[in-house]
């Protein structure tokens, strides 16, 4: 009988060994939480003897809703871990990375968001079954830090990036967070790596917050574990444009970037990977980017990863700046919104969000009423367009022939705000 019981016990242990493994892996984290809770309970017990009337209770360190800037932990890189800084002329876009990065884990079973931490730049360790690798449950943002003429470092409307990132997180089943807390954490990261912000008005520090599903299961459902990390890269020009700075784009009606009800209006990685092949085909035809069209009317949506704008003479004889509406097919760009808000204050220009079709572009161009086209985005700021290839048409856009082009006025205004030449509420100074 003892032998039989032993066999049953061995079988039970064999079948349930995964449970022991889970307990072993989580024990340190759970022990930390128990110690933390005991400490907090002790503090609450002695509070009447120590507290002052103005003292506020310390928030939970691992809240269900968001991480906190005040819990940020910093581990600085050792001298041997510091990365040689490249010359500004060598930068390109996204080739070099700063000395530090930020990581914030999310584990539903441990109460949600964990403490944010800044560490030396390093590779990530991720399980091969992580949902981000299999189902593209991941998203990212892009914003920049600018070194102004006064040597102060500025961010441009970062609250809009946080708002957009949370919308993408909600759409992807990923945890949301307090955007202001992340801005404060990013500001600290920039302060630590501040010498990576180029001393130049032609280069910036590009900031890439990314949120991925790290849970290691094959089930297609909302992940219970995630990782938010931020890396930074000093960058210069994104596109290699022509001699006059303008780009040529190819409008291919055979490919679609986004569709109604999809995620074209969210900054998720799955929007970008499938564009590579179409962009490569456009490059073989002598174009820098793809103009993404939609529907039987060939509506303009985006150009590359940029929002698109058109300047023309409208039916009333006024100069008008037009851009496609936010109908779910395009990304609500921070630069796009800023252009609309700034240009709407200019009395000599009508600003309108409206559907633009290729037929309309061709018609306006034939009548000499199409003046300019340009793309806009964080990476490129403003990119003038000089040519559009579409079916059997080769449409030359007179963008660079205008005596006082709108695109240049928009670009100069944005850069003046970003580099501190013009004091404006759009710019957030990092103290």
TrEMBL record:
<dbReference type="InterPro" id="IPR018300">
    <property type="entry name" value="Aminotrans_IV_CS"/>
</dbReference>
<dbReference type="InterPro" id="IPR043132">
    <property type="entry name" value="BCAT-like_C"/>
</dbReference>
<dbReference type="InterPro" id="IPR001544">
    <property type="entry name" value="Aminotrans_IV"/>
</dbReference>
<keyword id="KW-0663">Pyridoxal phosphate</keyword>
<protein>
    <recommendedName>
        <fullName>Branched-chain-amino-acid aminotransferase</fullName>
        <ecNumber>2.6.1.42</ecNumber>
    </recommendedName>
</protein>
<dbReference type="GO" id="GO:0004084">
    <property type="term" value="F:branched-chain-amino-acid transaminase activity"/>
</dbReference>
<keyword id="KW-0028">Amino-acid biosynthesis</keyword>
<dbReference type="InterPro" id="IPR033939">
    <property type="entry name" value="BCAT_family"/>
</dbReference>
<dbReference type="InterPro" id="IPR036038">
    <property type="entry name" value="Aminotransferase-like"/>
</dbReference>
<dbReference type="Pfam" id="PF01063">
    <property type="entry name" value="Aminotran_4"/>
</dbReference>
<dbReference type="InterPro" id="IPR005786">
    <property type="entry name" value="B_amino_transII"/>
</dbReference>
<comment type="similarity">
    <text>Belongs to the class-IV pyridoxal-phosphate-dependent aminotransferase family.</text>
</comment>
<dbReference type="GO" id="GO:0009099">
    <property type="term" value="P:L-valine biosynthetic process"/>
</dbReference>
<keyword id="KW-0808">Transferase</keyword>
<keyword id="KW-0032">Aminotransferase</keyword>
<dbReference type="GO" id="GO:0005739">
    <property type="term" value="C:mitochondrion"/>
</dbReference>
<keyword id="KW-0100">Branched-chain amino acid biosynthesis</keyword>
<dbReference type="InterPro" id="IPR043131">
    <property type="entry name" value="BCAT-like_N"/>
</dbReference>
<dbReference type="GO" id="GO:0009098">
    <property type="term" value="P:L-leucine biosynthetic process"/>
</dbReference>
